[in-house]
Design brief:
Purple Acid Phosphatase, chain A, domain 2; disordered N terminus; 6 helices; alpha/beta
Length: about 280
């Protein structure tokens, strides 16, 4: 079951206007490098309720935006409204825009997923609007939590791809199809204008998500340019290329309680533009 904050008519108006318009400032916008920070799977426990606001407020000045890749609570924590409100308040302390995508702990793994989704929509949908910024944000008509924008000559896409239990097999399959369509439609719109693509999701590329990742790999082959899929869920650092498309890199971020937000810089390198700093003295590879 899907819930909506805005009417379908308003969503259609926003989506069609945004995708139809050419960004008049895009050609004059500075190109790469682009620097941003990624966190996930935090806060899980009381100590992390203290840690997360510190991480957010002490981000380096080079941060252009932040992405939380889901799981705002431990899986064992009840999905009470106060949890969503609390974490939204923490993330709102950032000096730069924050984007967030859902994790399974705050949605499909909850005892009542429909209620949990209502809380997520209430506190996190269009979260970046809490800041005044110049990013031209696009949202998917069918799935408003999916977003995209171009910064420099990099395309950024956020999708609702969660781990955890399959709470509704029909919804699961349709959401994966929507996610793939969102990636492909953005590449049709912006693919010739950008030099690389970053996709934010929550879930690991495992069998339960093959109906998304297998066609994504074929899409990546056709795109040819470098793609980064960056996610949470597993809690430990992974840097590898598990896909058939060799231009598709996967990074799993450290759990936010054991490492600071990951610094990502995208350069003009045509073959390997992605640079990472775990900011804890540990190696990237």
């Amino acid at each position: 079951m899907r819930f909506r904050i805005l009417s379908l008519g308003l969503l259609l108006l926003c989506s069609s206007t945004a995708f139809a318009q050419k960004d008049a400032t895009q050609s004059s916008e500075p190109k790469t490098p682009v620097t941003f920070y990624v966190m996930g799977d935090v806060p899980y426990k009381p100590a992390e309720d203290v840690l997360l606001p510190e991480q957010i407020t002490k981000l380096p000045d080079d941060a252009e935006f932040v992405v939380h890749v889901g799981d705002i609570k431990a899986g064992s924590t009840p999905c009470h409204e106060g949890v969503y409100q609390k974490v939204a308040g923490m993330l709102a302390k950032s000096n730069v825009p924050v984007f967030i995508i859902p994790g399974d702990n705050e949605w499909n793994d909850c005892a009542h997923p429909a209620e949990a989704w209502k809380f997520w929509e209430q506190y996190f949908m269009r979260f970046d609007r809490r800041w005044q910024h110049s990013f031209k944000i696009f949202r998917q008509l069918e799935r408003e939590e999916n977003f995209s924008f171009v910064k420099g000559n990099v395309l950024f896409i956020g999708i609702n791809l969660v781990g955890g239990r399959i709470h509704d097999s029909v919804e699961w399959k349709q959401r994966h199809a929507d996610n793939l369509n969102w990636v492909q439609s953005n590449l049709r719109r912006f693919g010739n204008e950008v030099s690389s693509l970053v996709i934010f999701g929550h879930a690991k590329p495992v069998k339960a998500h093959n109906d998304f990742f297998d066609p994504l790999s074929e899409t990546a082959k056709a795109f040819q340019k470098p793609i980064l899929y960056i996610h949470g869920d597993g809690h430990t650092w992974i840097y590898d290329r598990p896909f058939a498309a060799r231009n598709l890199l996967r990074v799993e971020v450290d759990q936010g309680g054991i490492a600071p937000p990951l610094k990502v810089t995208i350069t003009d390198d045509a073959t390997n533009p992605f640079r990472f700093d775990r900011r804890n003295g540990k190696p990237v590879k």
